Amino acid sequence: MLDSTSLLVIGIVVLAVLLVALVVGLVLARRRRISMSKKEELEKPRTGYQAGGGFNLSTGGGTATAEPVEHPVADRTEVDGQPGVGDDAAVPRDSERRTLVDVDLPEPVVEPAPVAEPEPVVEAEPEPELDEIAPTEGRMQRLRGRLARSQTMFGKSLLGLLGAGDLDEDSWESIEDQLLMADLGAATAAEIVGSLRTKIVSQGVRDADHARALLREVLIEALHPDMERSVRALPNDGRPAVLLVVGVNGTGKTTTTGKLARVLVADGRTVLLGAADTFRAAAAEQLATWGSRVGAEIVRGREGADPAAVAFDAVKQGVDSKVDAVLVDTAGRLHTKTGLMDELGKVKRVVEKQALVDEVLLVLDATTGQNGLTQARVFGEVVDVTGVVLTKLDGTAKGGIVFQVQRELGVPVKLVGLGEGPDDLAPFEPAAFVDALLG
Ligand SMILES: Nc1nc2c(ncn2[C@@H]2O[C@H](COP(=O)(O)OP(=O)(O)OP(=O)(O)O)[C@@H](O)[C@H]2O)c(=O)[nH]1
């Protein structure tokens, strides 16, 4: 039996142990929480997307192949592998075909020989008036604010969270939520938060401005600023550069092809357009209008013609007439992955009988969010996409899709569409984009 003194000693020891554990716990918790000294005003507001330079063009030498990238399944937001490409798709090529039936043909009617008519007077077509193209240098200044309008809420709340005093677990969770809401994707959001947290702790950051500067740095890093973003649209060895513009219908393929032609013409280049989207007559018509406004030739087939044949003719004519670049607008309205694979694969193979393909630009509509990502994945499997054009960034608050697309495809976003105007196409610059995001 223990006497009362022993019980007292044991009691004191137990109390002391509990006290030590409590103190250690409190110290650890304080260490995980980061206190920011300054919490007042947000960083001086920047305005808009202000990429400084012009378009960066280069020769490709027919190297339209991208390094394959591994994308862990865990990174993917949906993994069924069978996305529906092109919702208003035409009848798929593998649909049931009609069988042959015998029909009686009417007897041919013998027409009397036509009376010779006087030669028609050929009126000279009036020279079309060419558009004035906005200078490519510094055009970003004009597009200032296009992106900022829809994106700054995202930036403001992120910066607000970083400047709102102590950064505890809840704050980090809120920061990650903000990134998720802007469509950065779970994997990228977790990486950004992890990296920012490490930097803040390792650098002993205690003031909000410094933390915000680190956020900017981490976001830019996540966009891989070292990726090669020049558009391979310059002739190589006396042969035109060949660019295929691919993507689902409605994403802005034709518009982007037209806008890019304007950029090249403004740079003093000669351009030939190939209207290989033969599913819709209006698409060729639309491209012809873009071409006529800048004096670019166009090669088109009749509606329903084989897109590969039109692409072949376009590149052949481009080689013969020695233009600097041939831009081929392709069709993307195919129901099945196999159909798409057949079609685009054939276009590329056939074109390469004339000249190597320098650039395959995948056009994605930023407003479609995850759907755009699914398309990116399918096209990435079908052709070697070498660059992404993200259109309609002026119409969405979800610019974060840029991060996911690059991660998914492992290819750079090269151009962004920031409006419906003919010159609302801009080169993608990570730092300028992040500045616009942060507002
Ligand atoms: N706001 C905005 N609209 C854009 C942008 N790019 C394209 N559009 C619009 O998107 C619509 C579809 O563009 P198209 O170029 O016809 O798309 P497409 O992919 O060629 O479609 P199909 O010809 O049907 O295959 C048009 O009304 C364009 O004006 C952009 O960057 N911003």
UniProtKB/TrEMBL annotation:
Region entry Disordered, spans: 39-101
Domain of life: Bacteria
Residue ranges with Gly residues bias: 50-63
GO biological process: SRP-dependent cotranslational protein targeting to membrane
Residue spans crossing the bilayer: 6-29
Binding residue positions for GTP: 247-254, 329-333, 391-394
Matches recorded under InterPro entries: AAA+_ATPase (IPR003593), P-loop_NTPase (IPR027417), Signal_recog_particl_SRP54_hlx (IPR013822), SR_rcpt_FtsY (IPR004390), SRP/SRP_N (IPR036225), SRP54_GTPase_dom (IPR000897), SRP54_N_sf (IPR042101)
Membrane topology: Peripheral membrane protein
Subunit comment: Part of the signal recognition particle protein translocation system, which is composed of SRP and FtsY.
Family: Belongs to the GTP-binding SRP family. FtsY subfamily.
Function text: Involved in targeting and insertion of nascent membrane proteins into the cytoplasmic membrane. Acts as a receptor for the complex formed by the signal recognition particle (SRP) and the ribosome-nascent chain (RNC).
Protein name: Signal recognition particle receptor FtsY
Organism from which the protein derives: Kutzneria kofuensis
Gene that produces this protein: ftsY
